[in-house]
Amino acid sequence: MTSPLRLGIAGLGTVGVGLVRIIQRNADLLTLRTGREIVISAVSAKSRTRNRGVDISAYDWEDDPVALARRDDVDVVIELMGGENGPAKALTEAAIDAGKDIVTANKAMLALHGQELAERAEEMGVALRFEAAVAGGIPVIKALSEGLAGNRITRIKGVMNGTCNYILTRMEDAGLPYETVFDEASQLGYLEADPTLDVGGIDAAHKLTLLSAIAFGVKPDFDAIQTSGIERISIEDIRAAADLGLRIKLLGVARVTGRGLEQSMSPCLVPADSPLGQLKGGMNMIVIEGDAVEQVILRGPGAGEGPTASAVIGDVVDIARGMHLPVFGQPATTLQAAVSAKATAAKPWYLRMSLLDKPGALAKVAEALGNAGVSINRMRQYGHQDTRAPVVIITHKTTRDAIDHASALAVKTGVLVGEPVAMAIEED
Amino acid sequence: MTSPLRLGIAGLGTVGVGLVRIIQRNADLLTLRTGREIVISAVSAKSRTRNRGVDISAYDWEDDPVALARRDDVDVVIELMGGENGPAKALTEAAIDAGKDIVTANKAMLALHGQELAERAEEMGVALRFEAAVAGGIPVIKALSEGLAGNRITRIKGVMNGTCNYILTRMEDAGLPYETVFDEASQLGYLEADPTLDVGGIDAAHKLTLLSAIAFGVKPDFDAIQTSGIERISIEDIRAAADLGLRIKLLGVARVTGRGLEQSMSPCLVPADSPLGQLKGGMNMIVIEGDAVEQVILRGPGAGEGPTASAVIGDVVDIARGMHLPVFGQPATTLQAAVSAKATAAKPWYLRMSLLDKPGALAKVAEALGNAGVSINRMRQYGHQDTRAPVVIITHKTTRDAIDHASALAVKTGVLVGEPVAMAIEED
C-alpha cells in the first residue's frame, strides 16, 4: 500500500466539520477505494476551543493557516475558510508555492482570481480542485471536465443558489411576500453573512463563472456575467407566473452564439412542469448540453455539511488516486478571453407593470411596446389595488434590447407606478 | 506534448460510428483537454464495405477483432460489438493479455463476466472502463466511483432502460395497449434484437448489477437481482396508476439493509410528480443516496449514437490523461460476494385483480388479504367489463412476502380471472 495521504484542513465551519466526520466515519472505505490511508495531520481555524461536536484532539493545531500550508506532514491543503481575498488567498498561494495540492470550496476566490491561481498551480505542478465550490454535493465539475470532456458544450443552465430557490419556492408555497421569507431564511441561517451575495445573484454568478471556464475554455471572468438578483420579485410575480403555468427561478445561462458567449444570472421564468420548474427548496440543478450527449441534468443539495463535504472528499479521493488534470480542464495558459455577446437570442419575455388607474393607460403602454417593436402575445390585467392596476404581459419572442427599449418607452408614458419588472422566459 | 493515444475500434454500429464522428469533429478540443492527439489506428466490423456515412478510409482494417487488439499501433481497444460471450469476450481477453487498455459499452459481458475480467485486467495493470454500458450519456459510473467515492452509498434507484420507459409513457400519453406500443417501438428500431432483453428487464438488470458492484463493493452478480419485466403491464394498470397520482416505471432498486443487499429490477409505481414520475420517453434517471451527499439525481438520454459515444470518449479522455483506477472502484480481489436479502422493507403495494361478476366476490378477496396480514388502504372498483370487474387495491405498508401470500390466497378463492398484478409503490 502507498503511504498515507496527509491533509491539513484550514477552516472548521460547517463544511470543515463535515469533512472531519467523513474521514473519521468512512476511513475503511476511503482506504479500500484509494489504496491508501487518508489522514488529517493538522487543522487551523479561528477558535481552538469552540465545541464543534467532533473530536479534533488527535490533529495538530495551527493558529496560522499559512503555517499549516507549509508543514512537512501535509500533502494536501484543504481551504474552507472562504472569502475572495485575505487569508484564503494567502493560504492558497502559500500552498502552491510549497508544492502542495489544494482542495477548496471557495467560489468567490476562484471566480475572481482563478486564472492567476490556476496558472501558478499548473506551473508548480500541483492540483487545485474545487468540486465543492459549485452546486454543493453534485459532482458537476467532474461531469463537465471529465465525463463530458469529449463534447463541445453548447449551453449550461441551472439553479446554483439554494437559498434563492428556497425563498422563491417558499413564497409560492406559503403565499408569503419576499421580505417575510427573507427574514425566515435569515433566521434559519440560510443566508451568507452578506446576504447580497445570495439574493443579489453574486454567489450563483461566481459558480457560473467557473462552469463557463471549463465548458467553453475561457478565462474565468466574473464581470462577463450579466447578474441581477431576486430582490425585486414580488408575490404578485410569483402568482402571475403560476397562473401562466410558469415558475420563477434565479437561473444561470451560458451559451455559445455566433457572436460570442452569452452569460447571465438572473430571475427567469421556466415551465412549472419542467425539471427546473419542479425544483424546490434548497436544491440545485445543472443542465448541460453538448454536441454529442444532447442534454444531461444533475440535481442535488446545493449546500449543507454532508453534501459539500462529500464534494471535498471526492476531490481528495482523486488526488489520493493520483489523478491530475488542469484546474479548468485544459491548461490555464490556453484559456481564451471570453468574447461576451449581448443577449441577442429572441425569447418570450414577462413584463409586469403597475398602471395608474386612468382611462387609456393600458392603450398607452401597448402603444409604447409596439413602438419598440415588441408584440404582445398574452396580457392579463388583475383587479385594481388602491389606485393602481397590475398588468402582466407575455411578449412574442424578442430581444433584451427591445425589452429594455420598450420598458423605457413605457415609463415615459407617465402612466406607470415604478419601473416594469422584466424577466426572460426560458422555455426549452 | 505526449505521444498520440492510438485507438482500435471493434464494432462500427451506431455507437462506433458516433465515436468516429466525435473524434473527427472534436479533435482539437480533445487535444486541448488531454494534452495529446487522440487518433484511430484501425477498425474492425462485420462488413468492410457497408456505407456508414462516415469516412473510415484513413484507418487500417482488420477482419479479425482479436488481431485488432494485438496490433502494436493500438494503445486502447474500444469494444463496441456487444454480446456477453463470443467475439466481444475474446477481444477483451486478448486486449488484456496484450496489455492494452479497454473501453467497452458491453453491459451484458460485464454483468456476467465482470469479476473475472476485472481481476485479469487489474493483474495486467490495464484499464477496463465502461461508462457507456450504463445509462447512455449520463456520466453515472464516474459520479459513483469517483465524485461520490467518499460516501457510504445506501441506495441506488433508477430508470435504466429507455425503451421500457418509452413504451410505458407512450401507453399513458396515447392511451394505447402494450402490444400496439411494443410493435411501434419495434418498428422504430428501439428494441434489441432479442426484445426480451429490454421488456423483460434483463438489460436494465445488467446495468444495475454494475452500479451495485461499484456502490456497495460487491462482486457483480446478475443473478442476485430479482428481475421482472413490463410485459404484463396493461393499459388498465397505466390508467389506474394515473388515477392515483402515480406512474409505472421499470425501476431498479438496490439498497443496503441490516440483512444484506436488496436488489430488484421490476415495474413499480412512483408519484407522478416526482423526478422519476416525470421522466418521459427514452430518458434514463439514476438516483444515488449516500451518507454524506444525501441524494443526487442524474438524468439524460439512455441510448443513441451521440450520447453513448459521449460516454465512450469520456473514458478515452480519462485514459489519455493517465487516470487509472480499479474497474469497479476498488481492487476486484477486495469485492465481497453480495449477501442477498429478500425484500423485507415494508412498502405500500398496488394490486390489480379481475373479479368474476359474482355476489360476494369482493368480500372474499378482502378476506384473503386480511388473512395474509395485508390491510387495505384504498380500493377502487371499475365498471364491469364483460363478466369481470377490475379492482385496484392500494395496501398499507407491507412486505413482498405478505403480498405473495395474499395473492396466492386471493387466487384460491376462485373468484379471480387470472393472476393478480402486484407492484410495489416506491414513494420516496
UniProtKB/TrEMBL annotation, chains A, B:
Its EC number is 1.1.1.3. NCBIfam families: PRK06349.1 (NF004976). Keywords: Amino-acid biosynthesis, Methionine biosynthesis, Oxidoreductase, Threonine biosynthesis. It holds the Pfam family Homoserine_dh. This is Homoserine dehydrogenase. PROSITE patterns: ACT. Belongs to the homoserine dehydrogenase family. Pathway: Amino-acid biosynthesis; L-methionine biosynthesis via de novo pathway; L-homoserine from L-aspartate: step 3/3; Amino-acid biosynthesis; L-threonine biosynthesis; L-threonine from L-aspartate: step 3/5. Residues 350-423 form the ACT domain. CDD domains: ACT_HSDH-Hom.
